[in-house]
Amino acid sequence: MASFVYDLSELICICNLRDRNKTVAILKTNLELQGETGGHNSTVLSFAGVSTEPAPYFDTPLWDVSFTLSQGELLLVRLERGRFRLPLADLAAGILEPVDGAVEFLGEDWQAMAADDAAAQRGKVGRVFENQGWINFLDVSQNITLAQRHHSTRTDADIEEEAIGLARLFGLPGLPYTSVSRARREDLNRAAFIRAFLGHPTLIILERPTRNLLPGILPPLINAVRRARDQGSAIIWTTNEDLVWSDPGIHAALKCTMFGSRMRVVEEDK
Amino acid sequence: MNTLAQVGNFALDGWHEIRYLSGMTCQALILSVKPRYWTRAVRTEFYRQILSIGVGSTGFVFYVASAVGISVVAQALVWLQVIGQSKSLGALFVTVLIREAVPILTNFLVIGRSGTALTTELGNMRVAGEVRALDTQGLDPFIYLVMPRVLSLTTSVFCLSILFVVVSFTSGYLFSLLLSPAIADPGTFVHSILFSLNPVDVINFLAKSIIPALFTGTICCAEGLRVEASFAEVSDATKRALSRSVRALFGISALVTLLTYV
Predict the structure, then answer these.
(1) How many CA atoms are closer than 13 Å to the CA of B189, on its beta-carbon side?
(2) Measuring CA to CA, which residue among B192, B168, B191, B179 is closest to residue B79?
(3) From CA B180, how far away is CA B165, in angstroms rounded?
(4) In chain A, which residues have their Cβ closer than 8 Å to the Cβ of B39?
(5) CB distance A156–B40 less than 8 Å?
(6) By three-state DSSP, how is residue B37 classified?
(7) Do B213 and B149 meet the contact criterion of CB atoms below 8 Å apart?
(8) CA–CA distance from B147 to each of A179, A244, B34, B109 (Å)?
């Protein structure tokens, strides 16, 4: 209750500021999240003994993976060489059913959710895809704003303004309006960050986000991650790069390494 | 397995497929009347499909309709003059074009031009992982990909059928004036068409335009989304979509004719 009153007073104060609409939108997201999850540091994602079957989409299945990720926490996963496509992100986003165990998002099992509810909850997940995940019949800017235009009631101008801010943060001059097939690979990789961070997602999944962009992308990415964590987002970051794994600026709450199908906790700072 | 069992399995498979496609079509229609599914992204996709299928086919349909109008008139004038009924051109147009040719031809043109393209597009999206990417972002592929395509294809076929009627009648009449200047004046021609048109003809026209188009959209989407892992499957899916759509078109048209005129 105290937390809610504090947030409400903070909301009223900030409503008087110049950038009123944007700030209200951000606080509203956080208030909604805290309402759903029961306050700060409440669980966003939990894996309980999750195992998957081998599938052609993935380099390796998962076996008995368990972890809990709360608001503001970051899970850094080091991947084995040549085994980059893991079912971890699909499980976290609820589009893959585990053969054993359960994956809960904001306290609710993905498998127990109705299809419409699950789709709405997926709107709270931002993701940099291992396989790009661009829709070819849309241009890059439409791809970036697609989920927000589907799930939120924000105006197009508001969504675009936030996207342009993120584009500048990640080293693009603005939103790319070219088709996906004509965009440069590096620009697409940067645009993937905009899509993942747009709309202050509750969970952000970064699948090897720095590939082909190191070392220049690391400072802005770490800044964006820090800001997202401050706003209550939980983050899963997979990498196979030493520079990322050993970067002291990342401050992961949980550092894990993959060995075959098993995930081993290396460091826990909760 | 004996022949009887094979025939039985074939019939059962066909029945299951019809049930599946009917269910999918009904689902698209039911979801389409719920405003919460018409988000900005879905509306944009619907408009994009209307532009691609409907507006994009206008020139093609215009050309075919003109040619059909001229062909029907050339044949009709000869035979009507033989039997001394050259004033009955309007009635003949209604019988030949509105009752049968226009709905079938328009659906046929859209299947060939847009239906197969739709299957290819969705098949390629499946292989490239784009459908999975949509799902991950919380965009239900049925809501975002299937529903707008089925509805836009149906809307387009209906509008193109009306365009077909107008263009074929106009071109037919103008051509008939060239062939036989003694033909009825435009007012009499239009009056004879309207006079020949029964309510059953209108129902028949609507049913033959809309129902096959709904099934074409569903069949093409279903075949595209059935593609699993390889681009090689896309061409097979396209062929299947084409043959099933054409079979559905003629089957439904025959059924509607039986129900409305027999």
Answers:
(1) 18
(2) B179
(3) 22
(4) 149-151
(5) yes
(6) helix
(7) no
(8) 24, 43, 12, 21
For residue B185, give the DSSP letter: P
- Name the amino acid, one letter, at B258: L
**CA-CA distance, B235 to B243, in Å (whole number)?**
13
Q: B124 with B231: CB under 8 angstroms?
A: yes
Q: What residue type is A251 in one-letter code?
A: H
Token pair of A107 as six digits: 């306290």
ipTM reported for the complex, 2 dp: 0.83
Peptide bond before residue A215 is cis, with ω within 30 degrees of 0: yes
B239: tokens are 């062929």
> Over the range B78-99, which residues count as b (16 or more CB within 10 Å of their CB) and which as e?
eebeeeeebebbbbbbbebbbb
CB contact under 8 A, B121 and A137: yes
pLDDT digits (tens, 9 = 90+) for B31-56: 999 999 999 999 999 999 999 999 99
Residue whose token pair is 């019939």: B11
The H or E element that residue A65 is part of is strand A65-70
Neighbours of A111 (CB within 10 A): 12
Please return the burial class of B221, using the count of CB atoms within 10 Å of its CB with bins 0-12, 13-18 and 19+: buried
d(CA A240, CA A52) in angstroms, rounded, equals 22
The Cα B221–Cα B146 span in angstroms is: 6
Q: Which of B27, B34, B38, B40 to mutate to test the interface with A (most CBs of A within 10 A)?
A: B40
φ/ψ (deg, to 5) at B128: -80, 0
Q: Specify the residue for token string 């699909």.
A: A90
0.80 exceeded by pTM: yes
Q: Dump the DSSP string for B84-98.
A: T-GGGHHHHHIIIII
* CB-based burial, A160-182: b 16+ in 10 Å, e otherwise: bebbbebbebbebeebbeeebee
Is the omega angle on the peptide bond into residue A87 within 30 degrees of 0, that is, cis?
no
Contact across the interface for A147 and B138, Cβ inside 8 Å: yes
CB contact under 8 Å between B138 and A122, yes or no, is yes
Task: Find out whether A198 and A152 touch, Cβ atoms under 8 Å.
Answer: no
A117 vs B: CB within 8 A:
no
A192: confidence class by pLDDT, cuts 50, 70, 90: very high
Three-state DSSP at A106 gives coil
| pLDDT one-digit tens code per residue, A10-64 | 333 333 333 334 433 443 444 454 444 344 568 999 999 999 999 888 888 999 9
Enumerate the domain spans of chain B: 3-261
